Amino acid sequence: MSDAPGPDILPSRRDAGGSTPFFGQYQGEGTLKTTKRSMDLAQKAGLIVKAALDKQAYGAVVLDVSRLCSYTDRIVIMHGTSTRQVQAIAQNVRETLKKAGEIPLGFEGERDSQWLVVDFGDVVVHVFYEPMRAFYDLEGIWADAARAQVQETQGDVRIVWPERSKQPEAVGLL
Questions:
Q1: Cα–Cα nearest to 102, from 112, 113, 114, 94
Q2: Coil, helix or strand at residue 83
Q3: Which of 50, 73, 156, 171 is an S-S bond match for 66, by CB 3.0 to 4.6 Å?
Q4: Residue 6 has pLDDT above 60, yes or no
Q5: Do the beta carbons of residue 122 and residue 44 sit within 8 Å?
Q6: Between the CA of residue 152 and those of 36, 89, 93, 95, 156, what are the distances in Å?
Q7: 8 Å CB contact between 26 and 96
Q8: Residue 28 lies in a domain
Q9: Domain housing 89
């Protein structure tokens, strides 16, 4: 019998409330280090947008996809006007959240820098080179998702959601 952790002891992506309170890191020898997340979704999305705006990102959008998909709760989309700027935005997001105790689960696209993805589990960040953003049109793909307004005032960033009644209901499969 193996001492490796089985699926029954791994924390789920969502608790009963629909948030992602824990992340796990396999430590070997049958142990799983589970730690409480240091910030909620609103704080994390705000910090991501602030880090991106610090590198002059354009068109930051935060989408609530928690009722539409199972792999994440929020999608943050933005773009830069050059591949170097796209790299700088994604790097600053990674570094800023790492300092806040949030380590990305994955990072993709650095080689071409046309579309970089930083996966924090409950929040997935897409940083596009401007022409690629229009081509892939993620906002169009997630048109049913609730969209937050990003408000920036005096260096502070606020994520403001529409009224709860305007957020989409869960979509069932037939």
A1: 94
A2: helix
A3: 73
A4: no
A5: yes
A6: 29, 17, 17, 21, 6
A7: no
A8: no
A9: 41-162
Is the pLDDT reported for residue 129 higher than 80?
yes
Domain count, the chain: 1
Domain membership of residue 36 (yes or no) is no
CATH of residue 86's domain is: 3.30.460.10
Residues whose CB falls within 8 Å of the CB of residue 67, separated by 6 or more in sequence, listed in order: 167, 168, 169, 170, 171
Beta bridge partners of 39: none
pTM for this one?
Answer: 0.72
Best mean pLDDT range from 25-29, 30-34, 109-113, 157-161 = 109-113
Residue-wise pLDDT for 141-171, tens only, equals 999 999 988 887 777 788 877 765 444 454 4
Residue range 52-58: average pLDDT?
93
Pairing of strands 146-153, 156-160: antiparallel
As a whole number of angstroms, the longest Cα–Cα distance in the chain is 59
Q: Are 142 and 75 in contact (CB under 8 A)?
A: yes
Does some domain include residue 68? yes
Rounded distance between C-alpha atoms, residue 75 and residue 72, angstroms? 8
- Those residues with Cβ within 8 angstroms of residue 13's Cβ, 6 or more apart along the chain or in another chain: 20, 70, 71, 121, 122
User: Distance between CA atoms of 73 and 44, rounded to whole angstroms?
Assistant: 12
DSSP of 96-149:
HHHHTT---SEEE-TTT-SEEEEE-SSEEEEEEEHHHHHHH-HHHHTTTSEEEE
